[in-house]
Amino acid sequence: MRFIIIDGLDGSGKSTQAKLIQRKYLAQGESVILREHPSPDNSYGLKAKTALLGRGKVNKMKASVYYALDVIRSVKKYHGKADNVIMVRYLMGLAYLPLPMAKFLYIFFTMVLPTSEYMFFLDLKPEEALLRMLKRDEEEMFENLDDLIKVRRKALKLAQGWHIINSKGNIEDVQTNFNNILNELDQKSR
Fold first, then answer.
1. N or C, where is the chain less crowded by C-beta within 10 Å?
2. What does the alpha-carbon distance between residue 38 and residue 47 come to, in Å, rounded to a whole number?
3. How do residues 107-162 score in pLDDT, each as one tens digit?
């Protein structure tokens, strides 16, 4: 089983690339479960999304707690249930917390939640991410330049050992980079 983790800043193309990876493995006749967080199919994901659309410290805390519960629920329910499980927004949600807490929780969660060699961080400069997000209908609390700069810096510190892919290019170029790494990893695991 492949356990594929795709994280990155908002607007970095995580969902787009996850769907392309899903399509790749489905075309090979493999089963795929794709989970995006916050998930709209359970109360934790819905509460996390509601908090993200709010403002203030209470909503930040609610978003963090419900997001974590949503991810844990997905792992418990779907891990090992298909040839491929793709998790979008998995561990790097911790980068929205203060760095000392984020580092501590990252170590904790990587000890209790599954990880794999298939961990990808889509890197994008915050200014570019913000331009992409302007096309959306709703704005979450962290979708501003100052927060994106801070989150990116913390996430890159946490993503040591991950496959970091620059997602500034067009969708096809990013997909090619993904496929090259996926093919290499798949060859090693045979």
1. C
2. 9
3. 999 999 999 999 999 999 999 988 887 776 766 656 788 889 999 999 999 999 99
Tell me the mean pLDDT in the region 67-78: 95
pLDDT in tens, 37-70: 999 999 999 999 888 878 888 888 888 889 999 9
Strands annotated E in 70-153: 84-88, 119-123
Return the sign of the alpha-carbon dihedral for residues 81, 84, 87, 90.
positive
The length of the chain in residues reads 190
Single-letter code of the amino acid located at 63: A
Nearest C-alpha neighbor of 26 from the set 2, 43, 49:
2
Quick one: tokens of 109? 């969660």
CA distance 104 to 27: 39
Q: What gap in Å lies between CA 11 and CA 32, rounded to an integer?
A: 23
Distances (CA, A) of 189 to 1, 57, 116: 10, 44, 12
Q: Is the peptide bond before 38 cis (omega within 30 degrees of 0)?
A: yes
Give the 3-state secondary structure of 50-87: HHHCCCCHHHHHHHHHHHHHHHHHHHHHHCCCCCEEEE
- Using CA atoms, how far residue 8 sits from 1, 78, 82, 132, 175, in Å, is 23, 22, 24, 13, 15
